[in-house]
Specification:
By secondary structure, the chain is mostly helical. The chain has a domain of 125 residues. It is 69% helix and 2% strand. The protein is built from 6 helices and 2 strands, in the order ββαααααα. Strands 1-2 form a two-stranded antiparallel ribbon. Strand 1 and strand 2 form a beta hairpin. About 2% of the residues have low confidence.
């Protein structure tokens, strides 16, 4: 199915399914329970998009390891940190939150909206990580040949083929890739550990250089 120059793929239907699941979950839980998780995912996705690159680049320079590893690690570390803090707050303030009537009549309508947004953010988080590994056309062809040689007509999905399907063959994935790439982890190819440069002879970087 096509929408102008865009095609609808399996990921688009999965995305819509996630939104429906979020709506149902939000209707069941209400805004009081949904709000902390909504804030959590907003901070994870928004903060992660801003922090993963400078932090990952810094750690790559310090350790000599590739940016792919550290970009993904920094993104996941940020997510784990935010998740831990929000979980602690909810557990420590849970009784007060449950007894509050902050949202009034909007408790469940707002909960439905919050649930949908939360599941969209979870999908965006997954897309960000999926984009991190850069696959060349040659690599994808080599993967296909390997499967053909070893499994015949049985083709198993790989991260590379899933990535191509999502970002090139689905409406949502293509729109995100073309118009909201800033929220995705920048694609990189893996490489081995390199020698750490001699910092005495290396030009010093200031903090802002890691955001470039």
């Amino acid at each position: 199915m096509n929408i102008g120059e865009y095609k609808l793929g399996w990921f688009d239907f999965l995305f819509v399914t996630l939104i429906i699941v979020g709506l149902v979950r939000g209707r069941k839980r209400g805004m009081t329970q949904e709000f902390p998780l909504l804030v959590q995912w907003l901070i994870i996705v928004g903060g992660g998009a801003f922090l993963y690159k400078p932090l990952g680049s810094l750690l790559s320079d310090l350790t000599g390891m590739g940016k792919l590893f550290w970009f993904v690690t920094a993104y996941l570390m940020w997510a784990a940190l935010v998740k831990g803090v929000v979980t602690w707050i909810v557990r420590s303030k849970g009784d007060k939150l449950a007894l509050s009537d902050t949202w009034g009549r909007g408790e469940y309508p707002l909960g439905m909206i919050s649930g949908m947004i939360r599941f969209v953010l979870v999908a965006v988080f997954s897309l960000a990580l999926l984009n991190a590994r850069l696959y060349s056309t040659e690599e994808l062809k080599a993967m296909a040949k390997f499967q053909q040689d070893n499994f015949g007509n049985v083709s198993m999905p790989t991260i590379g083929t899933v990535q191509r399907s999502v970002f090139r063959e689905s409406f949502i994935g293509k729109v995100v890739k073309e118009h909201a790439a800033i929220i995705l982890v920048e694609g990189n190819t893996p490489r081995g550990v390199r020698a750490i440069p001699n910092r005495k002879n290396k030009e010093k970087k200031n903090a802002m250089d890691y955001w470039s």
